[in-house]
Write a structure and sequence with these properties.
Helix 1 runs antiparallel to helix 2 and helix 3 packs antiparallel against helix 4. By secondary structure, this protein is α+β, with helices and mostly antiparallel strands. The protein folds into two domains: about 90 residues, no CATH class; about 45 residues, no CATH class. It has a three-stranded antiparallel beta sheet. Strands 1-2 form a two-stranded antiparallel sheet. A hairpin with a 5-residue loop joins strand 4 and strand 5. Helices cover about 45% and strands about 15% of the residues. It has four helices and five strands; from the N terminus they run H-E-E-H-E-E-E-H-H.
Length: about 140
Amino acid sequence: MHFIRENKKIGVINPIYTRYADDMVISFKSMPEYVEKAKRIKEEVVTLLKRIYLTINEEKFSIVNLETSNHVRITGISITKGENNYRHISVGKKLKNEIFWKALNLYDGKEEKNQVKIAHLKGILSFVLSIEKCGVDDTYSKK
């Protein structure tokens, strides 16, 4: 959590650090001079990565203002801005639909049941639950 502490020193409001494999996202509430603050965060990241002999891929680096785009999708996760500048993360309906249909096809016998397919489906569901925490069951009707 050293990294979040440093972001607070830079003066960002409510920083959120999200990482998946070698991709990372740092988000914070919009404020005046957000581009300058984002550049300072990037400098901090570069410094920390140099310590372990890593670098930022400049082609993948971007600064996105949710005040103008309201949505960004990174590594399969959507970050959207709702009321009161509150950020929400989701895997999106497409992946939830994939899980639903794979599970239904396994249950109905339309797909051969085997431990690898079942384990893969459980892994995807665990990923979704780790992102969305709750409410995934509410995506579809009880029917």
